[in-house]
Design goal:
Layout lengths: L1 E4 L11 H6 L3 H4 L13 H10 L2 H4 L30 E3 L4 E4 L25 E7 L8 E8 L2 E3 L14 E2 L5 E9 L8 E9 L2 E3 L14 E2 L5 E9 L8 E6 L5 E3 L14 E2 L7 E7 L8 E8 L2 E3 L14 E2 L5 E9 L8 E9 L2 E3 L14 E2 L5 E9 L8 E6 L4 E4 L14 E2 L7 E7 L8 E6 L4 E3 L14 E2 L7 E7 L8 E14 L14 E16 L8 E6 L5 E3 L14 E2 L7 E7 L8 E6 L5 E3 L14 E2 L7 E7 L8 E6 L5 E3 L14 E2 L7 E7 L8 E8 L2 E3 L14 E2 L5 E9 L8 E6 L5 E3 L8
Antiparallel strand pairs: 1-3, 2-3, 4-5, 5-6, 5-8, 6-7, 8-9, 9-10, 9-12, 10-11, 12-13, 13-14, 14-15, 16-17, 17-18, 17-20, 18-19, 20-21, 21-22, 21-24, 22-23, 24-25, 25-26, 26-27, 28-29, 29-30, 30-31, 32-33, 33-34, 34-35, 35-36, 36-37, 38-39, 39-40, 40-41, 42-43, 43-44, 44-45, 46-47, 47-48, ...
Length: about 775
């Protein structure tokens, strides 16, 4: 048995449950005598109550005569409840709901169970959320990705994602870091709010059908473009609708108050939640001081902070943040829950390279005054996400953590006032890594809390089997059935229907073509097709009309195998029956291919960058078999460690030159001589004496002076080399650090992201969040 304080419970806010029902809010929690979880910012609490005492929500409703707290009715009488469904009792004296268990779960995650696939794709996921998106009574999964966000519709069986294909929420492609679900427009279904990094946060309004986002166009919450890391929905001003709280890194957190209409943020201006600017990684909302409104806890790289709602319609006006404690760890995730069962919300903190910590609420208006954090255990992990829920069905709140390198772990509450004393972590997924987000919920409808883990290499599902040791013997599987290790992606209209298709170059599996379906959900229901069945270690893909017939062909750069050409057949199934051709018999360690007309004869030639090999040139013969009997030429005698090649007119003479990005040695420039043998007699020139481990090169006019500059993506600090505008374009040039960031950059791209007329830089990192650098003026970086 345990006590759940009404005032301290985010689900119930400042009203008792009976008061909620009589106060015109039945639609938020009750629909046709079955539960429909419409408050996603409080999803954990909804699922917890549903799993532990569902009759509280779905049994007969006892209607309060006087809404709100304190309530005065005596709910002890059995005539206000159905004893067959619940033993719940509202205590007038304690102003609390006493919950008793009618059946204890057994057999949670027993040996022999395996996780189930969700969907058919692998995305770089930063956040996952679960809720009933299509109104059919089961829990669906929404994944917030670097790229297009995806919805996975539960099929309603005990194998809830068998055969399920992910659906794009929209065609929007953002750097999404956080997802929140809730009914923001008050129409009875769950909408999606996404928190984006250095982009406006977005709202997607559910259309109320079985295809909840078909035809839906996202809307910016406001024009703010901030470093949003965490986003949460909650009624912050007590007017009955869901507001948005955005947790930002190195910028003030922001509050967006719902206007109460069907267009809930039209005309809304965000308000700062204090002027603090911390490196925030996570937010949690809850009534930590028991005054009936929602407060904000920020998990920071440094001291974590508490912001106390002032209870007005401008809830953080004049509010100053307070340190939770003097601890200054690198916190990645925070969660609130009554882990010691004393009726108030405690704080669990997930830290990076430090023990996770528990801060017990002291039950006063200054809830963490003099609170000393205690280590959950002595485990030191690379924690990315923490979540609270009753995983073993014993009536108290347990802890699940997701880590970067050590999988997921479960810490079972011991049921005392010192809830994790003597507790040892249990492995949920010891072999999994790169977990960035976890969420708990009953996805298979068996009454036990399951785990969904968001990863940057395939999301995972772990089905609780209902035992007291809920994850023993469980092996999670990627939430996907198509797992190809793509090293290179190229897009272009390969089937001639005026939309962009995708080609993936894979490692030791067949390269794949994904044809755009032409709808707002560009790849919804699309199954990749093998270009051919042969499998290589393809490191680079390029698209171009190599045979001059008006459609895009594929050039694949392979490691330790001949590079290959796949000729488009000009039909709607562009590579059906196509047999790849070796471009030459060379079997080099190819890392990069680039195509362009280097000899000025009107067709596309091929430049190949090899690791521990010479850069080679293959001149198109201008026929329908463009490399037949063509012999590749070494461009020079250089024998570099080339990882990336790019073509551009670097000296302004009207022809394409070659820039080679090399690893651990200087980058090299090869100036086209302007003849039909464009690099005959050409000697490469160093682009400065820098020697970095470079993986990617991009060319563009970064400083707006009319010539092509070089950007290098490195293991370490990325560098910019500014063309001097002469025929010796890098003579006397010194490389410039793009920023002080030092990461393992694998790919870079240039484009005008903010439409201000200059080129911005996008950086894809292996071991760190991808980054965007926006040029503030025509003086580049």
């Amino acid at each position: 048995m345990f006590i759940l304080s009404c005032a301290a419970t985010p689900l119930l806010r400042a009203k008792s449950l009976p008061s909620l029902f009589c106060d015109g809010c039945r639609k938020l929690f009750h629909n046709n005598n079955r539960f429909n979880p419409l408050r996603s910012s409080m999803l954990f609490m909804v699922l917890w109550i549903l799993a532990t005492c569902p009759a509280v929500l779905v049994g007969q409703s006892a209607l309060a005569a006087q809404p709100g707290l304190p309530f005065v009715e005596d709910f002890a009488s059995d005539n206000l409840k159905d004893p067959q469904l619940t033993s719940a009792n509202w205590s007038t004296e304690e102003q609390a709901l006493v919950q008793a268990w009618t059946q204890e779960l057994t057999g949670a995650f027993g040996p022999g169970l395996e996780g189930e696939d969700i969907g058919i794709d692998v995305r770089d996921t930063y956040s996952v959320a679960i809720g009933d998106m299509d109104g059919d009574g089961d829990m669906d999964v929404v994944a917030g990705n670097y790229g297009v966000n995806r919805l996975y519709i539960n099929n309603g069986t005990t194998d809830p994602f068998m055969g399920v294909t992910g659906i794009d929420i929209s065609t929007d492609s953002h750097n999404t870091r956080s997802i929140a679900l809730g009914d923001v427009d008050g129409d009875g279904d769950l909408d999606v709010v996404i928190g984006n990094y250095i982009e406006p946060n977005r709202l997607y309004l559910n259309n109320g059908t079985a295809e909840p986002f078909n035809g839906v166009i996202g809307k910016d919450i406001t024009g703010d473009s901030q470093n949003t890391i965490s986003i949460i929905l909650e009624d912050m001003d007590g007017d009955g609708d869901l507001d948005v709280v955005g947790g930002n890194s190195l910028e003030p957190h922001r509050l967006y108050l719902n206007n109460g209409t069907a267009d809930p943020f039209n005309g809304v201006t965000g308000a700062n939640i204090s002027e603090d600017e911390n490196i925030t990684k996570s937010l949690a909302l809850g009534d930590v001081d028991g005054d009936g409104d929602m407060d904000v806890v920020a998990g920071n790289d440094g001291m974590n902070r508490l912001y106390m709602n002032n209870g007005t319609t401008d809830p953080f006006m004049g509010v100053t943040g307070m340190d939770i404690s003097t601890d200054a760890d690198d916190t990645k995730s925070v969660a609130l829950g009554d882990v010691d069962r004393d009726g108030d919300l405690d704080l669990v903190v997930g830290n990076w390279i430090h023990s996770n910590r528990l801060y017990l609420n002291n039950g006063t208006a200054d809830p963490f005054n003099n609170a000393l954090g205690t280590d959950i255990t002595t485990d030191v992990a690379y924690t990315k996400s923490v979540a609270l829920g009753d995983m073993d069905g014993d009536g108290d709140i347990d802890l699940v953590e997701g880590t970067d390198w050590r999988g997921c772990h479960l810490y079972l509450n011991n049921g005392t006032a010192d809830p994790f004393s003597g507790v040892n972590g249990l492995d949920i997924a010891p072999g999994d890594s790169r977990i960035v987000s976890i969420v708990l919920g009953d996805v298979d409808g068996d009454g036990a809390m399951d785990v969904v883990a968001g990863r940057d290499s395939g999301n995972r599902l772990y089905l609780n089997n209902g035992t007291a040791n809920p994850f023993e013997g469980v092996y999670g599987k990627d939430i996907t059935r198509e797992q190809n290790n793509a090293l290179s992606i190229a897009i272009g209209d390969v089937d001639g229907d005026s939309d962009l298709d995708m080609v993936a170059g894979n490692v030791y599996t067949a390269n794949r073509l994904y044809l755009n379906n032409g709808s707002a959900a560009s790849f919804h229901g699309v199954t990749g097709k093998d270009i051919i069945s042969a499998a290589y270690r393809t490191c680079s893909i390029a698209l171009g009309d190599m045979d001059g017939d008006g459609d895009l062909d594929i050039v694949a750069g392979n490691d330790s195998a001949p590079n290959r050409l796949y000729m488009n057949n000009g039909s709607a199934d562009p590579f059906n029956g196509v047999t790849g051709k070796d471009i030459s018999s060379d079997k080099d360690n190819t890392r990069s291919v680039a195509i362009g007309d280097v000899d000025g004869d009107g067709d596309l030639d091929l430049v190949v960058g090899n690791y521990l090999g010479r850069i080679s040139l293959h001149l198109n013969n201008g026929t329908a078999d463009p490399f037949n009997e063509v012999i590749g030429k070494n461009m020079t005698a250089d024998f570099p460690h080339t990882y990336s090649v790019a073509l551009g007119d670097m000296d302004g003479d009207g022809d394409l030159d070659v820039v080679a990005g090399n690893s651990c040695e200087p980058h090299r420039l090869y100036l086209n001589n302007g003849t039909t043998d464009p690099f005959n007699g050409v000697t490469g020139k160093d682009i400065t004496s820098d020697e970095y481990c470079t993986s990617s090169i991009a060319l563009g006019d970064m400083d707006g002076d009319g010539d092509m500059d070089v950007v290098a993506g490195n293991y370490g600090m990325n560098r910019l080399y500014m063309n001097n505008g002469t025929t010796d374009p890098f003579m006397g040039v010194t490389g410039i650090d793009i920023s002080t960031d030092s990461h393992n950059t694998r790919s870079i791209a240039l484009g005008d992201l903010d439409e201000d007329g200059d080129l911005d830089l996008v950086v894809g990192n292996w071991d760190h969040s991808n980054r965007t650098f926006r040029v503030k003026s025509l003086q580049a970086f």
